[in-house]
Design a protein that fits this description.
Length: 174
């Protein structure tokens, strides 16, 4: 029960930071550092397989300093760690802006909801970058945004959509 309380508080802190300059750091640290460190601490899971490697926001941010948001337009290229990070941050900003706009225009008692659509550039960028960052953590091959979009396998669709659902979970708490 104590762990559930901690997780709830961590998600609340992330949610409360939405719209701030610290929001990308908090989302990234929660999903790609803290959650991965918690997984690594389950030592029995890693007796027969390679454990995941958490990512550090500051380190990846330094690597991505020269990468601009236009990288997301290169959809047939498999992005590097730094490029995925840059697309993650930019798409997170775009989705946050969209959610804030929806929230401002929502009817009272009707919370705004973002939905995943493979033809929506903002959500596809977020899903592609987030899935690729997670793949890097687990030593799984990454894919281009084009491949992610055209892939119709249920397994991959569920994998990529799972990360968008995490975003929705954070945003629905607003």
């Amino acid at each position: 029960m104590d762990n559930l309380w901690k997780e709830t508080q961590a998600l609340k802190a992330v949610r409360d930071s939405m719209g701030s300059t610290d929001f990308p750091r908090k989302v990234f640290t929660k999903v790609f550092t803290q959650d991965i460190e918690r997984l690594r601490s389950m030592e029995d899971m890693w007796k027969t397989r390679k454990p995941p490697k958490p990512l550090d926001f500051d380190e990846v941010s330094r690597q991505a300093m020269e990468v601009g948001p236009e990288k997301s337009r290169q959809d047939q290229v498999v992005w590097t760690l730094a490029e995925n990070f840059a697309v993650f941050k930019d798409s997170l900003r775009r989705l946050s802006d969209r959610l804030n706009e929806l929230k401002a225009n929502a009817e009272p008692g009707s919370p705004p909801i973002l939905t995943f659509d493979k033809d929506d550039v903002d959500t596809l960028d977020f899903v592609a970058a987030t899935a690729n960052l997670r793949s890097i953590i687990f030593g799984i091959d990454t894919r281009s945004k084009f491949d992610i979009k055209r892939k119709h396998s249920m397994d991959l669709t569920e994998l990529y959509a799972d990360w968008f659902q995490k975003w929705q979970a954070i945003s629905s708490l607003l």
